Amino acid sequence: MTAWAKNFGKTASQDTLVDSFADRINAVILKQIPEIADDPVLVQDLHCSTRAEWREFVASLSEDHRLVRPGQGADLARTLARRGLDLGILLKVYRVAQQSVFQFLTEVIDGTSEDAPARDEILVFLWGLGGQWMADAVESLIETYYEERQRLRDDAVIRRAETIEALLGDAPPSADDATRLLGHPLSHWQTAYVVRAPEAGSSTTEAMLDVANAVAQALGTSRPLTMVAGSRDLWCWVATPHEPDLAQLPGLASALQQAGMQATIGRPGPGIQGFRTSHAEARAAENLTLKAAHGRALVRYDEEELLILVSAQETLMQRMVTREVGRLCSADKNLALLRETVLAYLTTLSIEATAEQLFVHKNTVRYRIARAEELLGHPLSQRSTQVELALRWVSLFGAPSDAT
């Protein structure tokens, strides 16, 4: 049994089986727990947790493996606590998972070779270890959940979180009351953004706050209003007397990349309404980046609004991309330069501004545009909206498989 367990552990830790396990278990969990299914950040935390738990469990089948509880499960527990969701949701995750894991292991064991130990013996062996593993996980994560809730019970943090939640809710308080409670002038222009660490365990709240402060400075103020909203995301707002210039933000992209962070920015808006709408837009931009194959460090809602609105229609969008810019979509690095140049030009509508943005000569821009128009079969003045939208899709999601 020991020899079989070691071999099984090696096989079960391969990426294909890990993905198969995580996708199957998570599909059942998300179907039965809408509070998680409706929140893209919780969905991602769940996926990371399931994958990490499975990898650590199969690694524990080796006698010389030192058991370590993966941090991704703790991230899920902390996010649930920070979202104000009940402990019962965390317990339900493991209760639902337990049934699915048993069925998964049963099917795996049914496929074992004839020289393996008896199937019922394997099942008893694995399920005994798995049951204990999940029981220990629940006990550990309950403690993590309550530790996070206790931390959040600090009076100042609670008042701030409750006021922000009220501002985003159906019956927001008056601007004067909220300004007094938050120390944040809600009569000013409001620009919301979300700072996110894409990888679990890759950052700390302090590091996210540093990034939040850098964005605030770029928008012309020294201190943002912030709310820790999950294990890897920080909700932020800055207030300015006048509408800020978002054109100052692109210079932050390299700093964000170095910090391993992403920031998504909503459009500025005045007063409480701006506080709400800008936040909704920043969250929508964040949801777009969660789906993207090529994550960008800085995403502005105002630049990607059309893409955000149509991203739910993935099949139709891919068909449009293939039709409009398919001939610009091969892996050739020269075509990548053409796509970058055309997208910059359609954004600026200026040869000079495009050349300055890309740090190339104006004649280089003209050559690339002429080459792109040749491949597209029409000038960029025609169907420019479709071409720009298609290229924005490719920059985030990659080319569809049928694009040539």
TrEMBL record:
Pfam families: GGDEF_2, HTH_30, RsbRD_N. Residues 338-391 form the PucR C-terminal helix-turn-helix domain. Residues 169-285 form the CdaR GGDEF-like domain. Residues 20-155 form the RsbT co-antagonist protein RsbRD N-terminal domain. Belongs to the CdaR family. This is Helix-turn-helix domain-containing protein. It comes from Streptomyces mirabilis.
